[in-house]
Every structure is written in C-alpha cells, then in structure tokens.
Amino acid sequence: MTPSVLTALLLTAPLVAHAAVPDIAAADASNVKIGRWDNVTGTTGVVCIHTAMLPGPAPMGSKWRLMCMERPHVAPYAVNAQTNQETTVEIDPWNGNFTTTHVLRNPFCSGHSLTADGRLLVIGGDEAANTINGAPFIIDGRNARRIYTPMHVFDGTQTAPANTWNLTLGDMAVNRWYPTVLTLADGTHMIVSGSTNNLDFAKPLTTNNPTYEYYPTRPGVWPKTVSALSRAYPFNLYPPAFQLPRTGKVFVFIGRESILIDPTTPASAEDDTTIPPLIRDAVHFMIYPYTPTVVILPLTIANNWTATIQVCGGTLTASNSSSSFCFQVLPEDPAPQWVDIDTMPFGKVMPDAVLLPDGKVFYTNGGAWGFAGGAAGEAYNSQPPAYESFLYDPNAAAGSRFTRVPDATVGRLYHSGALLTPDGRVVTTGNEEANWPDVVANRTNCMPFRQTPCLSPFEYRMELYSPPYLFLPNPPSITKPPTSLTITYGSSFDFIVNADPRAAAARVTMTRYASTTHSTNTDQRFVELEVLSRNPANNRVVVRAPKNGFVAAPGLWMLWVVAENGAVGKSVTVKIASGTATSVTVDPPLAATATSTGKASAAGRVEPVGRWVGVGVVTAVIGAMVLAVFSTFV
Questions:
Q1: Which one of 48, 190, 359, 619 has the largest count of C-beta atoms within 10 Å of its C-beta?
Q2: Could you report the per-residue pLDDT of 35-59, keeping only the tens digit for each?
Q3: Which pLDDT band, with edges at 50, 70 and 90, does 334 fall under?
Q4: Alpha helices in 196-248, H assignment, sequence order
C-alpha cells in the first residue's frame, strides 16, 4: 500500500471506552412507516474495514457480536493506542467490550466468508508489515489463509481456543489482494481473483492475477486462469460471486462481463459465458474502484427460488458523480438479459445492500461523488457521504420499488460496511475518510499538514437502523425453538410461536450470517421456507428446510417469522448442514378460514394475498482535478 501524502500526525479526539446497544424503543407514527436510526455509544476499537456478524452466547439469539479488521495505522497517523496496534477485534456491543486478537499475517485487503461451522475464513491480504521492539508484529499476508474462531461457537465443539487465529492452513501459491471468497454448497470455498499486490496507477500495471482456486485445495493443477478476469484487468478486484440455486454454478460479475463457473466438475473454468455484458455508456465499469453493490434477491416460494442478481450504484462517466442506476439479470434463464429497473432516489458509489427478513432490501452507505480507493484520510477520492438510505421492495410495482427512509447520521465513505443483526436491525460500521469536510472546505493546512482543528479520518462509531417492521404492533416471536438447532437439508422441523401462527407466522424466512468489505458480501442470502402446517391450538409451526446447499449454503442462519401485518421479531440462530433428512409430524389440515390479508389453502395454511411474484424483473469542486491524477488505490 502506498503511504498517504499527509506528513503530520493527526490528533485523535478522545473516544468513549465502551459501547452500548440501545433498545428498540416505542414507535411513533413515522417509525412505523420509515424506521429509525440510533447511535451505539462508544467505539469499535478498530475501523471496521472488514466486518463479520458473529453469534452471541447460548442460547444463540439476538445478542450478536462483530469481528472487525482494519489496516495498520501508518505515518503520518499515530498507531492505534486503543488496541496497542492490534488490527483485529471481536466486539461485544451489549456489554461495551472489545477483545483484541493477534493475527501475524496482515488481513487488510483480504477476502472472507463465514464457514459451515460459523467461523471466519480470511484469504489474502496486504504486504504492509511492522515491528515492535525490533520483532515482527505484522507481516505480509497476501498469500495467507487463516481461520478465526470466535468467542462463541454454535455447537460448542471448538477445534481451536476462542478468539484465536489458525495460521496453519498452508499458504496459497499466489498472492491475492482484494480477492472474493464464497462458501459453496459442500462447505468448501471458492477464491476468485485478487491482484498480486496493491494497485498503483502511477506505475505499470503488472499485478494481474486472473485466476481462481479452492480451499481446501482440490486435486489437479491450481490456480486456474479465467480469460474474462484477464480481459477486465485492472477492473477485476472483489468481483461479486454467488452460487446459483438451480444449477449450482457460480455467477461471477466482473464489472461488465459475467461468467458461470461449475464447481461440481474437477477442473471447470468459465464454461458458460452466454450472459451478455452489462454495458451502459453513462456508467463506468461497475466494479472497484467505481464500486456498486451487488446482491442476489430473495429466493421465495412464489418465484420458485429463482436467482435474480441486482446491481445498483457506481460512478457516472460524464461527471464522476455517483450513479443511481440499477440493473437485473436472471442468470439461470435460458436466454438471460440485463434489464434496467427502477433507479435509486439518489446516486451512491460504494453503497451496501442488506437483505431483510421481510424480503425487502436496505440500501445505505457510500459517497455522492468519486470512486473508491486511497490511503486513510485521502477523502478527495470520494465525498461527501451519501447519507440517504432506501428500502427496495421487489414485490412493488415498477416505478415504486424504492422508498426513502431517514438519512443516516454517520457518514460511511471508503472502507465501510453494513450487516443484518439477529434482532432485525442493520448495523453500519467503518469509514477511513471521516476527514472529508476538510477536503470539501479546501483546508490546505490539513492536506497534508495536521493542525488543530483538522479532523481524524478514522470512524469508530456504530449506527443502527431499525426497519419499519420492528415498530408494528404484535411482533411475532419464536418462544420454543426447534428441538435440534442443527437442521439438515430437506428436513421438516417445528417450533412454537407466541400467538396464533396463522397470523404470527404468515411467512417463515431465513437469512444467513454474513461478512462484508468494500461493498462485497457473498455470504448473505434470503430463503423463504415452505410451511407444512400451522396449529392454532398450540401455536406450533412445521416447516421444511431448504432442499440443498445450492439454495442455502451450510452455516449459521437466522430463522425468522413474519406476521400477517408484516411485523418481525427477533430471530433464532440455527445451523444448516448436510446429513440425513429427518421429519416431524405435520398437523392435520384445518378448516379453511379466511383472514384479513390472506386465504387458507386446502391444507389450512394461510397464504398471504399479493405474495412475491417472479422478479423479472454533490459534485465536489476539486473533483475533476483529482480524477485527472487518479493515483493510488488502496
């Protein structure tokens, strides 16, 4: 990574030593319609450039935790005194604690995914190194493979001590900086792209690594080259990737081109490039540094668990303002085509998209102008923050799918993230360009010279968005979880809810625990479950698990019930795993009973009316000068 052009130390303002998650307070009329933001008191300890959602203590409910990773603080900035220079922490926001963890191989600029047993696999990283008292403290992590074991492991069977890193997985044969990692149906992991070193556009571009491989390493010669990745260089970093629910092929989006890789064959490369390129003259390559966000929309009963890929945001070619454009493709269609859909109410570059338990998508974070990249404090690459946030409803009529919700209060520019929490909220973290007002005000004494009252670039605050469903009356809850919290594919299982399930459990959904960095999140997925019976006599609900790992990758998932009125309560954490399918008794059909928003099926199950249908579907004055230089990305 290239040092910042700043040459003086920043003075860091005092931070509160502990964090505290606010309760979901009583709603007012506006909260019911658009939700609410709340600040979490205190500090995350590190800048959450890489963030993973972790379960809390047993029983695995809503007391979530976070793992966060940052880059080492280098001159002109002082070392991170909060952590004694450690770059990774596990955060307990409920008790106001963070625990530092030491990882020798630098994980900044890595890719990651949550494993089938709920740990965090971290691949690649950065070359930056430092010493303490002459001894190596952090060393080059570009070809490293490592797994983090959190404080609380789902089933209690820990293969390593809690809060520790396993660095004995063996190194990769090649370096990977900004790779993508995803967990596959069989619990293994695909690793895609990642340059051999950080990009410096002031130097010859010789860092291309247009390959993919697996962990654990498969038999044969690896890694393998993908020509589409090679063609796209240097626009091939952090390519969004998702395993598709019908074929099991992995969809990889490389800014314009899309490829499908079949991980079920011994040595597959790009065996299907029938998806046409996504080229829109108004928008730059839709990948880092002109970063959009890409998500696989909810897999539901009504759309027969069909994959729809949605791309939103990025950078406009004419003005370098952020893009509001969104596009969709059905990659498993016989003749897939990219289509333009509703635009976001405001443009965003580096946004984050979060799948919510009611099937909507929450868009937040990002900048209003510019592009991703730069060392800490180089906010002239992108600013000001795009505080605007939106809900996207795939079931709404075209032209009305986005709804504006309250603006965030904490800016999230480069190196930020957002994740769904098990209590139904969205937590936002990170930002290494919090000094952007100094840039907008053209305070040259702050660039590069640090003088009071210049701003620190490092953002340690968390913010929580509570969606409207948390403020609706009569929130449902699972009062008795499944007997076994490890659920195998195709199994039926039951649980008890707090009220008549015909209303309290109108829908049952699952979302996967996730990790995110640089607007890239391969972990998250939404799957609606088939309800086999609802018994109002004892509030028992019987559902069927996803049929295989193509639909739902193994690992930790949040189990949700969505009430007839749209209310959502807290989730229960379960583990989806391979194994022999099991079954429970399905209650007999009830007499057909219509409800206010639904109708009973022949089996007595309430099927809501209007269910999901198949989803076919501030420019800165210094901007032009800065983009003409377009120097170092980090």
A1: 48
A2: 999 998 879 999 999 999 999 887 6
A3: very high
A4: 227-232
- In sequence order, the 6+-apart residues with CB closer than 8 A to the CB of 202 are 631, 632
Distance CA 171, CA 293 (A): 30
Instruction: Bin 424: left if φ > 0, else alpha if -120 < ψ < 50, else beta.
Output: left
Angstrom distance (rounded) from CA 324 to CA 322: 7
Tokens of 41: 């008191």
DSSP letters for 528-547: EPEEEEEETTTTEEEEE--S
- Could you tell me how many residues make up the chain? 634
Is 70 exceeded by the pLDDT of residue 309?
A: yes
Give the strand pairing for 530-535 and 540-544.
antiparallel
Query: Cα(56)–Cα(624) distance, rounded to whole angstroms?
Result: 47
Contacts of 134 (CB under 8 A, 6+ apart): none
Percent of the chain with pLDDT over 70: 85
DSSP state of 258: E
Q: How far apart are CA 251 and CA 273, in angstroms?
A: 10
Each residue's pLDDT tens digit, 536-567: 999 999 999 999 999 999 999 999 999 999 99
Burial class of 557 by CB neighbour count within 10 A (0 to 12, 13 to 18, 19+): buried
**How far is the C-alpha of 172 from the C-alpha of 144, rounded, in Å?**
6
Supply φ then ψ for residue 352, to 5 degrees.
Answer: -125, 140
Q: What are the b/e assignments for 242-255, b being 16+ CB within 10 Å? A: bbbbebbbbbbbbb
Cα gap 173→221, rounded to integer Å: 11
What is the predicted pLDDT for the residue at 160?
73
Distance CA 260, CA 271 (A): 6
pTM score of the predicted model: 0.90
**pLDDT value at residue 161:** 82
Three-state secondary-structure class, residue 190: strand
Helix (H, G, I), strand (E, B) or coil at 471: helix
